[in-house]
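Progress note, sequence design subtask.
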C-alpha cells in the first residue's frame, strides 16, 4: 500500500480459498516477510474470510483487517489500481482464454510497477518506492532541476522548481486524532464557555474512528470516517 507496488498476482478460472492460500504464501516468501511484520487488508469475500486463509495468516504471523460490510471504498488503493488496469488502451472487451488474460497481465504489471509514474507517490514508480530508492530518486531529480534553473532562471516564472517529495506515510483511514479535537474543544470552551462534544445536545460526531472491520451501529449506520481515495493514478 505504501509503494503501490503489485507484489503478487494470480489469474485463475475461479475464486478459491486454496488458491488464495498459495498466492499469499508464495508472495510472503518472495518478499521475505517475517512474522509480525505485515498486515493484509482485504474485502469480505468468501475467499479472504475463509478458515483456510485465516489459518495460513496465523501460521505466517500476518495480521489482517477487512473492509466494512457493503463499503467498497474501504480498499481504495486496490480499487484505484483496478481502474488503472481497466482504462489501459490495450485492455480488451473480453479475453479469449485464461492464457490470453495471463499473457496480457504480465506486461501490464511490469509497466505498472516499473514504468508507470504515480502522482500519489511523487511521480515515482512503485518499484522505486518499494525498493527504498525514493529519496535517492528525488535527490537526483532535484539536481537536474537545479541545473536547469541555474542555466536559465528566466524560464521559471514561479521561482526555483522543486521535485515532488517522496511519500512518508500512507493510510487507508488516517487516524483522526481525538486528542487534538478534545484539546481544540477545551481551548474554545475556555474562551467562549461553549459546551463540549460530550455534553448533551451537541450533535457533532466524535473524530474517533471505529476499526475497519467494525460496522456502524443501527443508531449510526454511516459513522463519520475520513478515507483516502486515491484516483490520481488513472491515465
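Output:
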Amino acid at each position: 500500500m505504501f509503494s503501490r507496488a503489485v507484489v503478487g498476482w494470480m489469474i485463475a478460472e475461479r475464486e478459491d480459498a486454496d488458491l488464495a492460500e498459495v498466492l499469499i504464501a508464495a508472495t510472503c516468501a518472495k518478499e521475505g516477510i517475517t512474522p509480525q511484520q505485515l498486515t493484509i487488508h482485504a474485502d469480505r469475500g468468501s475467499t479472504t474470510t475463509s478458515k483456510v486463509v485465516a489459518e495460513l495468516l496465523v501460521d505466517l504471523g500476518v495480521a489482517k483487517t477487512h473492509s466494512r460490510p457493503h463499503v467498497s471504498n474501504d480498499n481504495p488503493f486496490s480499487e484505484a489500481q483496478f481502474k488503472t488496469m481497466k482504462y489501459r488502451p490495450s485492455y480488451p472487451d473480453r479475453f479469449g482464454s485464461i492464457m490470453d488474460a495471463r499473457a496480457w497481465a504480465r506486461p501490464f504489471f511490469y509497466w505498472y510497477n516499473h514504468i508507470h509514474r504515480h502522482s500519489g507517490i511523487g511521480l515515482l514508480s512503485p518499484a522505486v518506492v518499494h525498493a527504498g530508492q525514493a529519496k535517492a530518486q528525488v535527490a537526483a531529480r532535484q539536481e537536474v532541476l537545479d541545473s536547469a534553473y541555474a542555466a536559465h532562471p528566466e524560464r521559471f516564472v514561479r521561482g526555483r522548481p522543486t521535485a515532488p517529495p517522496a511519500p512518508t506515510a500512507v493510510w487507508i483511514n488516517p487516524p483522526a486524532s481525538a486528542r487534538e479535537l478534545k484539546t481544540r474543544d477545551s481551548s474554545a470552551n475556555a474562551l467562549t464557555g461553549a459546551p463540549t462534544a460530550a455534553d448533551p445536545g451537541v450533535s457533532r460526531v466524535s473524530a474517533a474512528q471505529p476499526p475497519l472491520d467494525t460496522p456502524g451501529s443501527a443508531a449510526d449506520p454511516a459513522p463519520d470516517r475520513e478515507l483516502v481515495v486515491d484516483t490520481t493514478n488513472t491515465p
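Residues 188-235 have pLDDT under 50 and may be disordered. Work on this subtask will continue into the next period as scheduled.
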